[in-house]
Amino acid sequence: MTRLTATAAGVALAFVAFPVNAAQVTARSFDLDCTGTIQERFGHQRPFRHTIHVDLDANTYCVDDCEIVQSIFAHSDDGITFIDRPSDGYWAVNRATWSRSTGAYSAEFAASTRIYTHRVTTARCDPAPLSIKRERM
After folding, report:
1. Cα-Cα-Cα-Cα dihedral of 52, 55, 60, 64, to 10°?
2. Whole-angstrom Cα distance, residue 78 to residue 132?
3. What is the pTM of this model?
4. How many C-beta atoms surround the C-beta of residue 132 within 10 A?
5. pLDDT tens-digit profile of 73-131?
6. How far apart are alpha carbons 78 and 13 in whole angstroms?
7. Higher confidence at residue 60 or residue 19?
8. CB contact burial 29-39 (16+ within 10 A = b; e otherwise)
């Protein structure tokens, strides 16, 4: 009994003395449950509530019911850049990111067509277990 206690104490001490890197224990497939607002041109606001399904191994993501699966632009221990595209003739700005440390999600889309469109999304996205089958991604 004493030996078991000593072993348990040694394991606990190892975790305190040598903390586990959070990136090592983070799931590679997960959901981001996001809630925030979309600010559109002329100050119009509307709610933003979506689930982003993420598969870092496949480098893909999809939103809500996964009708469209898209490639992730980049990811690191700090977060995910879903989209980061320069002007393509239609979109002047096309960027969406999520911070792992703060949970902050931000997206900005601006169209450079005859009818100017600008949309900025700010939200908080909390990680959750993946709620869809990976095969759908």
Report:
1. -20
2. 24
3. 0.74
4. 16
5. 999 999 999 999 877 666 677 899 999 999 999 999 887 666 677 899 999 999 999 99
6. 27
7. 60
8. bbbbbbebebb
Q: Are 55 and 66 in contact (CB under 8 A)?
A: no
Q: Structure tokens of 80? A: 């995910």
pLDDT, residue 90, reads 67
Q: How far apart are CA 129 and CA 50, in angstroms?
A: 15
DSSP sequence for the chain: -HHHHHHHHHHHHHHHHSPPPHHHHS-SEEEEEEEEEEEEGGG-EEEEEEEEEEETTTTEEEETTTSSEEE-SEEETTEEEEEEE---SSEEEEEEEEETTT-EEEEEEEE-SSS-EEEEEEEEEEEEE--S-GGG-
Q: What is the dihedral of CA 63, 66, 71, 73, to 10 degrees?
A: 0
In sequence order, the 6+-apart residues with CB closer than 8 A to the CB of 137 are 29, 53, 55, 58, 60, 61, 62, 66, 69
Report pLDDT digits (tens) over 1-28.
333 333 333 333 333 333 333 433 358 9
The Cα–Cα gap between 93 and 61 comes to 20
